Amino acid sequence: MDHGRFAHYRAFYDGPASKAPIALVMGNCQAESVRVMLATSKSFPCTLVRVPPVHELVSNDMDHLDALLKRTEILLTQSVRSDYRGLPVGTAQLAERLPSSARTVRWPVVRYGGLHPFTAIVRHPDDRSGVPPVVPYHDLRLISRLAGRPSDVHTGPSADEVVAVAEMSKAEMRRRERATADVAVSDLLVRAGADAMRTPNHPGNSVLLGLARRLQRALDLPGDATDPGRPLLNDIHAPLSERVITALGLKAAIRSTWSMAGEPVEEHFLWKEHTRWYERHPQWVEAGISRHRDQMALLGL
């Protein structure tokens, strides 16, 4: 086992030192940030164990996960399909392995494209973890260009297009909340303004804190989680254009470049690197069009 991974998730592999009841927060990279928020609570009744995100779990982790589930009294989980990546880590599968006294609260994967209408996540069944270099996101303008459609890196969306994408994205969040969640997040995105998302799937602290408090209240606990005093999910920031700021009435500074670990990444450099990657992985172009067809139509792509 990788020693760095073991050290980071020691309580997952060795079990927590405390004999207190356990709480697990399961899901993607957002789950650990929610756990950090909940760990600030003075009233939370269980030991919050740091676990790997579901997309990083491997078969050798299952015995360790099962040992924790036997002691888990609170499971807070994003909705995960059964047999995700070939492992029994779906929401229903986890719930089946809990003690009868345990409580489960589901929360939605937070995705919102309103602030970054051209930025997208694309998955392909050939390689679910495959991403382009530099930043692990796709630009719908570049996908459109490579598919033979007119597009330009300097073309910005109109105000109507920005609003249309934001409304579509919020509607999709509300749909998933109704279908698979016990708490809502979509209204928090509106309140947070420009701080709602750093990228389409990395919420800002105010959204994460609001979600953590709602999870507490869903458990009939005081909503006393607090901000940990540092920005979470902060390694990557997508550009924030003047047109988006104006169209959505935001109070924010323009961000013309990507930011990776605090270092700026110019879009023209990113497009060059991504174009080379698409030349080796052309199937991602069609996958992007298939997944984001409606959004691309709203943007005239």
Helix content: 25-40%
Average the pLDDT over all residues and give the rounded result.
Answer: 93
Rg to the nearest angstrom?
Answer: 20 Å
> What portion of residues belong to β-strands?
5-15%
Termini separation comes to 46 Å
Low-confidence stretches: none
Largest sheet data: 4 strands, parallel
Sequence of strands across the biggest β-sheet: 2-1-3-4
Global morphology = globular
Number of helices: 13
User: Could you say which structural class the secondary elements and strand pairing correspond to?
Assistant: alpha/beta
Order of helical and strand elements: HHEHEHEHEEEHHHEEHEHEEHHH
What is the count of β-strands?
Answer: 11
- Give the total of domains: 2
Structural notes for this entry:
By secondary structure, this protein is α/β, with parallel strands linked by helices. It has two domains: 3-107, Rossmann fold (3-Layer(aba) Sandwich); 119-200 and 238-298. The chain has 13 helices and eleven strands. The chain has helices at residues 3-8, 10-14, 29-38, 62-69, 91-96, 140-146, 159-180, 186-192, 205-218, 242-247, 267-280, 283-291, 293-298; strands at residues 22-26, 47-49, 72-78, 103-107, 119-120, 138-139, 197-199, 202-203, 236-237, 258-260, 263-265. The strands form four sheets. It has a four-stranded parallel sheet. Helix 6 packs across helix 12 (283-291). The longest helix has 22 residues, at 159-180. The mean pLDDT is 93.
